[in-house]
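Re-running Sugar transporter to confirm reproducibility after the cluster update. Everything else is unchanged from the original entry.
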Amino acid sequence: MLRHGHRYGYQPRSSMEPNDSELDESDSGDRVGLLQPRPGGGGGRPDQVDWRATGLAFLFPAIGGLLFGWDIGTTSGALTSIMDPNTSGVDWYALDSFQQGMVVSTSLAGALLASAAAAVKVGDEFGSKTELQLAALFYGAGAIVQGLAPSLGVLIMGRFTYGLGIGFAMHAAPMYIAETAPPSVRGLLISLKEGFIVGGIMLGYLGSYVIFGQDEGWRSLLSTPAVPAAVLMLGMSRLPDSPRWLLQRGRPASEAREALEQVRGKKANRDIVDAEMARMVSSDHHVGGINELFRRENLRPLYIGISVVLFQQITGQPSVLYYAEQVFINAGYDPADGAGVAVILGFFKLLMTGVAVAFVDSAGRRPLLLGGVGIMTLSVLTLAVCSETMASGDVAGTSFTARASVAAIFAYVGAYQVSFGPIAWLLVGEIFPQRVRSAAVGTATLTNFFSNFLVSLYLPTLNENLGTAGTYYLFSVMSVVALSSIYLTVPETKGKTLEEIEESLR
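Result of re-run:
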């Protein structure tokens, strides 16, 4: 059974050694792969979760997502403060459009570079724990440089450095959480990380509101992440490396067992920990890089992981938010309330992310994805029809059409937050085989950032050539393609260990 047991120096207790039927036990489909407690076993309920240990192993990686959200939420407010001669406190406040674009986009450039580095080398070589510490270092350094920037060039350098932190954090956080979380709550925790990103966006909006009108308020806004970055660094130093990564690097199984017990906690059922450890030890620990991603056995998980993060961007998410303010104005809201619109949508995103967190491990990944993307498709199609009606000059129907557009935006945002928002990253964290997980997650992260960049870059051109309605129609077609792809390729993974997921896709 444990063909690699002697090699890694780990022998499970004979009374605990699982057989194949026990490892595949599904408990009526609710908890796939969890062993039932045996007489004289390690105690605890079959699904017992030690929330103190599990929570700590989740919280600190999730801070990496929070700091990404903070950057999204504060960029606009910081730029406004810099360009206001009354609050900038510098003589280079008059930024032209290209310079504004540089301030906004250089963090994305840093994230792209870090994602590529993580995929090629850093992730496999250092592991997700060290990578998160590296992210904390870049987050902190970038925040300090931005806050103290004496010139535009230094500010851009700080933005790029901060972006390196984003790239490493968004690569490592879903991997660390997926590899350390109990299978019964893995979906909840990785989805909750999306909640931290949205929460960071909301805090960024609030921070922009607080510094509005303050002299050099942008400095405090951009330097604030240095504090949570230090918390991230300290917190990760108290956590172990991923036990799966330790085995992959050829470390003793006893060390991996110690790491697994630390992240599971004292209340975890010992039988289940034994069974999971046995599966880890008996699995393939060969380290495969980018060159192995396109081997036949990796093609299906690679397609699933890359397709969901690609569809996340090309099904209209940037465009719906891009035009949201104009839709609200058409519905009768004052143009001065644009910031309020962003806050309202932000709170709604956070609320619906909570819905996904609550149901992802009970309802499953596929139902939430299929249902959410289905509603997104209908919503963006409604926006297309409404935009076409309003462009036709039908004055009589304008009021109703505008209200229907507002409802469609809320439906779209809500559906996105229970489907693509959290579940795309959940699948990225759990769908790839261990031997190529780091390279594959890095490739998916790079795909996400790059597609986001391209959509944002060409969205104005699409709108100019196709019109608002035509742009929405295009995104509705892409949503149908996404829905078909999910139906045909994405498996249900709730409750399964990472090794069971890997076996089912092989």
